[in-house]
Amino acid sequence: MQKEYTVTVYTEDRIGITNRITVIFTRRGINITSLTTAETEIPGVYKFIITVLSEKSKLEKIVGQIERLIEIHRAFVHEEDEVVYQELALYKISTKALKNGNIEQLIRENNARILTITDEYFVLEKTGHQEELIALQAKLAPYGLIEYSKSGRVAIVKWSRRFHDHLKELEAQRPDNLKQARYTAHTEVSAEEESI
Amino acid sequence: MQQKDVLPMKPELAGKSAAAAVLPNISGSEAVIRSLIAEGVETIFGYPGGAIMPIYDALYDFQNEVHHILVRHEQGATHAAQGYARTSGKVGVVFATSGPGATNLVTGLADAYMDSTPMVCITGQVAAHLLGTDAFQETDVIGITMPITKWNIQVTRPEDIPGAIAKAFYIAGSGRPGPVLVDITRNAQVAKFDFEYKKCDYIRSYRPVPKLDTEAVKAAAELINNAQRPYIFCGHGVLLSGAEKELIALAEKAGIPIASTLLGLSAVPVDHPKYVGYLGMHGNYAPNIMTNECDVLIAVGMRFDDRITGDVTQYVKQAKVIHIEIDAAEINKIIKADVAVHADAKTALEALLELVKPQQHDAWIQQFREADKKEEEKVSKKELYPAEGGLKMAEVVRLISERTAGKAVLVTDVGQHQMIASRYYRFQDPNTNITSGGMGTMGFALPAAMGAKVGTPEKEVVAVIGDGCFQMTLQELGTIYQSEIGVKIVILNNNFLGMVRQWQQLFFDKRYSSTEMINPDFVQIAKGFFIPGRKVTDRADITAAVDEMISHNGAYLLEVVVEKEDNVFPMVPSGQPIANIRLE
Questions:
Q1: Tell me: domain B214-367, CATH 3.40.50.1220, correct?
Q2: Domain residue ranges in chain B
Q3: Any idea which fold B390-562 has?
Q4: CB-based contact (8 Å) between B13 and chain A?
Q5: How far apart (Å, rounded) are the C-alpha atoms in residues B118 and A181?
Q6: Please, what's the b/e burial string for B49-66 (b: 16 or more CB within 10 A of its CB; e: otherwise)?
Q7: Rounded CA gap, A8 and A4, in Å?
Q8: pLDDT tens digits, residue range B462-483?
Q9: What is the pLDDT confidence band of residue B13, given thresholds at 50, 70 and 90?
Q10: pLDDT tens-digit profile of A33-54?
Q11: Which pLDDT score, from 0 to 100, does residue B2 have?
Q12: What's residue A159's pLDDT?
């Protein structure tokens, strides 16, 4: 059954990594509904937060294929109750609306705040879940909403550990990486070659 | 240690001085060649052009160290590199220029990616300041090849060249092997820098060889020890991991029959008492139908391609599945594994071998032999030893197999002849089956055979090619002539795109839409490239002709005109359950 899922991907900082990730969704005909990315608490490691409407079994395979990419550390798929998340929206509204008494109540009830005011317009900010942000948009429409802009999802995974610990585990596995099969035996560097 | 005051040295000199770790002030192009030499590269397949000219110029000084084979089309270079990699066990290397040179690599990269073949392609690119300006012969090769390479990278500064090449070789050859592309802008090729090479053996986000989960191995052994009808599938991963001996030892110790996938062929000698045949749409009858009879399936280094499973909803439902696979993304992708052993095949099999109990399942194996009789009666006997009618592909393959004692490297193209050759060639030695499996790339065989021969010059290399396939890459006869590559080329000519015609006959009411071919004189074409050849149309001549070809020293082309409208059986119709396998 189709449901909204959050996919998180931990990556190295590398040109084109967004493309490499999104192309895997494209191949299976899955539309990405939002995408947020920023550096994590570890310098050089980025986190992608992707929301999609799909099925869990499909997404688990996609996550496997994402993890196969060389510059990806880990990728996960989360159900809605496994993440704490927030989105942010900005609303540009005609200043004339301020003269209407109801707008104050709307701002209060929705925990929105005013970022700036000019002669022509003012900008409201609200954080919350997508439904709440859209609901406020609908309520503002009669007041002359000029523009609306919403962010992707920012999420914290409830069961996540420090990613540092994961990286440490990777380092611990390092000797295994050196053990190779058929295709590396021949590329042993001799002392002579190494000196070139 | 840095030695800024010494002059750049040729490798034969450099080797003598162990301290010369840094070569000051050399060009990016020279660095490319020196990096390849440091990786042990001896052979490059390539084609020059504007954006890669500085690298070719640098190559000119290293002709004694690196052998460059000038192909006739960049696609040919990729397939040659694939053939070379699969026979020699080394990473195949390709050079191509920007734009059309780079786009011509696409088919070979996709093929190598599907069939896990290690390859490093180095492409020239327009100068960095021209990137994105639609400059002459500029193409976004990184964007184009992103989904068909294991990794790719664009280098715009000379100092990044050694690191990129080191990473490229490490990634291409480790874990599940695959193709890698390194795109180098012209300015990086010509600019000078202080060169130092360090092989790559670690990337923190990349874990090519997973840690063996001993609990999973124990669980697998437990299943095998309690099985009544265990069954092994041998995939390409067995060859890639060099685990042929371990696999055979497991089969012998625990009395388990082994079937092979198309790319797993040659891992187990076909006359081994535990070997039961070849799987898939046109594989053997017994191994296909017995998939739904076994109680424990041990799939090693294979990915349950749809050409093997048919309808997955009616596939191996009765059995517990043990999947030994190095690529985690393949586990549970198509068939749910009851026990997943995410590991290199050799490591996993070694561990498993210790834990399995000696057993024999002779009655179970006997069931395969009984089913074989049905196939022999209905298909193989008539195919291999026909008394009348036109020549059969199978009898030609049988003769080649007999005359080479099953020890040649058999390179096949794609279609009916591929399935027939894979069915009837009696493989004896590992890594002697070179074919395009996942992609089914027509035109693969001729260039792949060149690479296979260069990779194993001591072996006889026979390319079995259809008349359609041959005409896709026949320009490589020029390479074969120029570089004196002694491959034997057999064209099985039925004047049809045979496999498509077979489907049209069986599933499209014999509406032969665009499958009949009016062909040129193939022997004359070979003559034009100074390659001797012979055309055979009668059964009476075929034995002598095969003998003549095998005993000929150097390249030779044998055209065999075969029965026009023959079909390949057995056949599992596409998307149907394997139980629907047809013998006629």
A1: yes
A2: 11-195, 214-367, 390-562
A3: Rossmann fold (3.40.50)
A4: no
A5: 12
A6: bebbbbbbebbeebeebb
A7: 13
A8: 999 999 999 999 999 999 999 9
A9: very low
A10: 999 999 988 888 899 999 999 9
A11: 36
A12: 82
How far is B358 from B500, CA to CA, in rounded Å?
A: 47
User: In chain B, whose CA is at the least distance from the CA of A174?
Assistant: B202
- Cβ contact, residue pair A186, B90, below 8 Å: yes
Count of all residues that appear for chain A in the document? 196
Q: B474 and B525 in contact (C-beta within 8 Å)? A: yes
Q: Per-residue pLDDT tens for A110-126?
A: 999 999 999 999 999 99
Question: And the tokens for B416?
Answer: 């009916």
The reply to whether residue A68 touches residue B328, judged by beta carbons under 8 angstroms, is yes
The alpha carbon of residue A24 is apart from the nearest alpha carbon of chain B, in Å, by 8
The CB density around residue B520, as the number of other CB atoms within 10 Å, is: 12
Q: Give B115-160 pLDDT, tens digit per residue.
A: 999 999 999 999 999 999 999 999 999 999 999 999 999 999 999 9
Interchain CB distance below 8 Å, A73 and B205:
yes
The confidence score (pLDDT) of residue B17 equals 40
Nearest-Cα distance to chain B for A78, in Å, is 18
**Bridge partners (DSSP) listed for residue B35:** none
Task: Tokens for B212, please give them.
Answer: 């063996």
A3-12: strand order across its sheet: A32-39, A45-54, A3-12, A72-78
Mention every residue, 6+ apart, whose C-beta is less than 8 A from residue B267.
Answer: B234, B238, B239, B244, B247, B260, B430
The pLDDT confidence band at residue B65, using thresholds 50, 70 and 90, is very high
Strand order across the beta sheet in which B67-70 lies: B67-70, B43-46, B92-96, B119-125, B179-185, B151-155
Nearest to B146 among A19, A72, A177 (CB): A19
Length of chain B as a residue count: 584
Residue B10 has a CB neighbour count (10 Å cut-off) of 13
Identify the structural domains of chain A with CATH numbers, from first to last: 1-78 (3.30.70.260), 84-150 (3.30.70.1150)
Tokens describing residue B75? 């696609």
Q: Count Cα atoms within 13 angstroms, Cβ side, for B182.
A: 32
Query: How far is Cα B570 from Cα B379, in angstroms, rounded to an integer?
Result: 7
CB neighbours of residue B196 within 10 Å: 17
Q: Please indicate if any CB of chain A lies within 8 Å of the CB of B172.
A: yes
Is the confidence metric ipTM above 0.90 for this complex? Answer: no
| B159's tokens | 């100092």
B196 touches A at CB < 8 Å: no
Listed in sequence order, the residues at least 6 apart from B226 whose beta carbon sits closer than 8 Å to its beta carbon are none
Residue B80, CB half-sphere, CA atoms under 13 Å: how many? 32
The answer to whether B525 touches B477, Cβ cutoff 8 Å, is: yes
Dist. CA A112–CA A128, nearest whole Å: 10
Per-residue tokens: B539: 């059964």
- Find the helix or strand (DSSP H, E) in which B231 lies: strand B230-234
| B276: three-class secondary structure by DSSP | strand
Strands, E assignment, B47-178: 67-70, 92-96, 119-125, 151-155
The class that CATH gives domain B11-195 is alpha beta
DSSP string of A165-185, one letter each residue: HHHHHHHHTHHHHH---TTTG
Tokens representing residue B110 in the block: 């996709």
Over the stretch B159-189, which tens digit does the pLDDT of each residue have? 999 999 999 999 999 999 999 999 999 999 9
Rama region for B309: left / alpha / beta (φ>0; ψ in -120 to 50; rest): alpha
Residues of A in contact with B266 (CB under 8 A): none
